Structure formats: structure tokens, C-alpha cells
Amino acid sequence: MAYSELMIRPFREELTRYGVEETRTPEDVEAALATYGTVMVVVNSVCGCAAGKARPGIAKALQSSKLPSKVVTVFAGADIEATERARSYFAPFPPSSPQIAIMKDKKV
After folding, report:
1. Among 46, 47, 62, 67, the one annotated catalytic
2. Which of 20-39 are b and which e, b meaning 16 or more Cβ less than 10 Å from the residue's Cβ?
3. 0.85 surpassed by pTM
4. Residue 105 and residue 31: Cα distance in Å, rounded?
5. Largest CB tally within 10 Å, which of 18, 41, 46, 63?
6. Is 47 part of the annotated catalytic residue set?
């Protein structure tokens, strides 16, 4: 069962206000990964690790002078099919929430 959108909206907005693009469907994930260059894929979640480390860490990383071509996010427990699609490219790394991968040509 997916999380309530009311509950997770603030967690989504914590990344989108930094310009991170949401990918809510498998097709959105595919389009993002077709980008030329590097793509940072963030699996966001409601857990304390995402709140205390991952989202603040991403915000700080996005202040760097060296950035990926695109930064996208899926939300575990909400964008279920999109999350599954993104994670399908992360092998051999097991799924976790949160999770971050830097991709190029659909490879970690």
C-alpha cells in the first residue's frame, strides 16, 4: 500500500525546491536516464535516514561546482513502479531507502 500523498508531500518538496525532478512513472525514469551525461537518481523515503542524512546531503551536494547533468528522484512507498524501474538499473547493489546512484548510459 502506498503512503498518503498528504504525508509525503513535505518530503518530496524538500528535494524539488532544490531543482530535483520527480519521476513518478517508469516512463519518467526511462526518459530521465536517456539524458546525455550523468544522472543522479535519488530514492527518497519517509525514514529517518532520508530526513537526517540523505535529503540534507543532497541539498549540500547540489551547491557544488561539479554537478550531474540531471538530478531526479523517485519516492519509495509512493512511486512504486517508478522506484522498481530505477532500482532495476542499480544492480548489483541491493535496494535500500534512501538510495542514491550516479548513472551514465543507464549504468551505475
Report:
1. 47
2. bebbbebebbeebbeeeeeb
3. yes
4. 12
5. 41
6. yes
